[in-house]
Design a protein that fits this description.
Layout: H1 17-31, H2 36-41, E1 43-45, E2 52-55, H3 65-75, E3 82-88, E4 91-96, H4 98-112, E5 133-137, H5 149-167, E6 171-178, H6 183-195, H7 198-203, H8 205-222, H9 224-238, H10 242-265, E7 272-275, H11 281-293, E8 297-300, E9 303-307, E10 315-319, H12 327-342, E11 346-350, H13 356-368, E12 377-380, E13 385-386, E14 389-390, E15 393-394, H14 398-414, H15 417-422, H16 426-443, E16 451-452, H17 455-458, H18 466-482, H19 504-526, H20 530-546, H21 558-581
Parallel strand pairs: 5-6, 5-11, 6-7, 11-12, 13-16
Antiparallel strand pairs: 1-2, 2-4, 3-4, 8-9, 9-10, 14-15
Helix pairs in contact: 4-19, 6-8, 6-9, 8-9, 11-12, 14-16, 18-20, 18-21, 19-20, 19-21, 20-21
Keywords: Aminoacyl-tRNA synthetase, ATP-binding, Ligase, Nucleotide-binding, Protein biosynthesis
Family: Belongs to the class-I aminoacyl-tRNA synthetase family.
EC number: 6.1.1.19
């Protein structure tokens, strides 16, 4: 292909469509008073079947729009990059050279997946975050309290962000900040003496501690001395009394082990399990002291407050009347300790929008304390989920959601006896499809919106659902099984992709595949999984409509069959990559 100039912020070695955009920008800057960079910024992906579109008014070029357009069109010469241009009102639509685009896109995907230098699929990745470190704090359930749907959303969105930042070259530390401290542990300790059972604890620590918590809370409503003895117990824990801490340590350890198993089911992995208990007293005390000396603290009935009225953030309590610490103090102390330990470039908190005020106060206090890194703290928020309960009633534990998702899917699969018999491990497969269904429902819309969860929608193999995505991947994976004579494919240089130019469907798929690296970049700008989900569905639909037209099995010309097979193999690699980015496990059979 003819050489092209370089444009800052592009990397054709990772995204070949950058080259086609540069070629269009070059044609613009040769005809109009624009630099190459200015022209490039105006070349956008087209809508409704157009490859690239340029909105001429954006350049604010003096003179009539028709004359500006005429200059570009008169000078236009088709070449190996771009084959045509048309004017449509105030837009210029450019069409890239079909044969070369298909070849270049598929060759690049092949080079960055099957033959990637690292041995890991690299198509869609970039180096924008190279040398930078991010901490992402997400999931963060409370020990001994229910793992509610808000925690599930945080887990799903956080896992996506961790994958996204890795794909953009960042060093990522996934952190789970457990609610493992506070007066509720005084209650549980008091309750354990009365209701505790070692056997139940070992069977399911999370559930047993929750049951104790519920039972002792009932007692506390009837008898005020229960709360008093719980408060004394927690005070002993805060003061470092070994007897009071011993049981708590065991409970925490057992709960973490149980959570790890459940996260593994969800394909989520944490580098660090920390928690409220891990925030050092010194860090909290020195933070308070600093706030005092800076004159930011006022007293109210023995409690200490930070005045944030002038930023419309109200008053923030940093220490209770009885001298015990609260959330905010802990968060402040924790952030300071984390910066000292990790020297992060960015720290993200994936927490529901109900906590918007709390996080705004927390970030503002750190800023007032004069920490320059306070500006690199980010709150990624999300809306609420309604209607997530199992058929038995309200959902309390994460494992109930996981089991229910598997059961719903398993029942659905059993309806097709023939296919069901062909699946090697139907229950495991059902579980994976079920989890995909839950995750896709969560990530399909913008995260700030509330949504109503629907089990029926989740089990559908039609429409934009998780099972449909898995089905699309399984179908692509089956092509090589059904055409063993074509496998393994030869090196891409000896596959005649020109045969594919005859098929509009093949062109559409190849162009879409070429956009994937930009889909990842856009997700990085918006911090939203929904764009990646939309891409995965667009790709699945494009492939689905190509099955009956771009046929592999039954194609008598082996050269053509190989080219089609190559297209579908590349599509499978990219669909799998998008699914993995969304923390899904792409299935080979179902």
């Amino acid at each position: 292909m003819p050489p092209l100039p370089a444009v800052p912020g592009t990397d054709p070695s990772k995204c070949i469509l950058d080259s086609f955009r540069i070629a269009i920008a070059q044609k613009l800057s040769n005809s109009l008073p624009l630099t190459l960079d200015q022209a490039f910024a105006g070349v956008d992906y087209g809508k409704k079947g157009e490859d690239f579109t340029v909105a001429l008014p954006r350049f604010r070029i003096p003179g009539k729009l028709e004359e500006t357009a005429a200059k570009v069109i008169e000078n236009f010469q088709p070449d190996e990059w771009v084959e045509s241009v048309v004017l449509d009102k105030s837009f210029l639509h450019f069409r890239v050279n079909t044969t070369n685009m298909i070849r270049e896109v598929l060759t690049q995907i092949d080079a960055l997946t099957r033959n990637a230098p690292s041995g890991q699929p690299e198509y869609g990745t970039n180096d924008s975050g190279k040398g930078k470190k991010v901490i992402i704090e997400y999931s963060s359930p409370n020990i001994a309290k229910s793992f509610h749907v808000g925690h599930l959303r945080s887990t799903i969105i956080g896992a996506f962000l961790a994958n996204l930042y890795k794909a953009c070259g960042w060093e990522v530390i996934s952190m789970n900040y457990l609610g493992d401290w506070g007066t509720q542990f005084g209650l549980i300790a008091t309750g354990f003496e009365k209701y505790g059972s070692q056997a139940e604890l070992e069977k399911d620590a999370i559930k047993h501690l929750f049951d104790i918590y519920v039972a002792i809370n009932k007692d506390a409503d009837a008898d005020p001395t229960v709360k008093a003895s719980a408060a004394q117990w927690f005070k002993r824990m805060e003061d470092g009394d070994e007897d009071a801490l011993r049981n708590w340590r065991v409970w925490r350890e057992m709960s973490v082990r149980k959570y790890e198993k459940e996260y593994e089911r969800l394909n989520v992995k944490f580098d660090v399990y920390t928690g409220e208990s891990k925030v050092g007293k010194e860090a909290m005390d020195s933070a308070l002291e600093k706030l005092e000396t800076m004159g930011l603290i006022s007293d109210s009935d023995g409690a200490k407050l930070v005045e944030l009225e002038q930023w419309k953030l109200g008053k923030a309590v940093v220490r209770k009347k009885d001298g015990t610490s609260i959330y905010l103090t802990r968060d402040i102390g924790g952030a300071i300790e984390r910066y000292e330990k990790y020297k992060f470039d960015k720290m993200i908190y994936v927490v529901s929008s109900q906590q918007d005020l709390h996080l705004a106060q927390f970030f503002k206090v750190l800023e007032l304390m004069g920490f320059p890194w306070a500006s690199s703290l980010v709150h990624i928020n999300y809306g609420l989920v309604q209607g997530m309960s199992t058929r038995k009633g309200t959902v309390v534990f994460l494992d109930e959601i996981i089991k229910e998702a598997g059961n719903v899917m398993h029942e659905q699969m059993m309806k097709n006896e023939e296919k069901y018999k062909a699946v090697v491990d139907p229950e495991e497969t059902a579980l994976e499809i079920g989890i995909t269904g839950v995750k896709i429902q969560d990530m399909a819309a913008k995260r700030i919106g509330n949504y109503t969860f629907n089990w029926d929608r989740m089990k559908s193999f039609e429409g934009d659902t998780g099972p449909y995505l898995q089905y699309a991947h399984v179908r692509l994976a089956s092509i090589s099984r059904k055409n063993p004579t074509l496998i393994p494919l030869p090196p891409s240089s000896s596959i005649h992709t020109a045969h594919l130019s005859a098929y509009t469907h093949a062109r559409d798929i190849a162009f879409l595949l070429g956009t994937y690296p930009d889909v990842v970049k856009t997700a990085m700008k918006t911090q939203e999984p929904s764009g990646v989900v939309t891409f995965a569905f667009r790709l699945a639909h494009a492939i689905s409509s190509a099955w009956d037209v771009v046929i592999v099995k039954g194609e008598e010309d082996e050269e053509k069959a190989r080219a089609k097979m190559f297209l579908y193999e590349c599509a499978r690699e990219v669909l799998a990559g998008a699914m993995r980015l969304l923390s899904l496990r792409p299935l080979e059979r179902m």
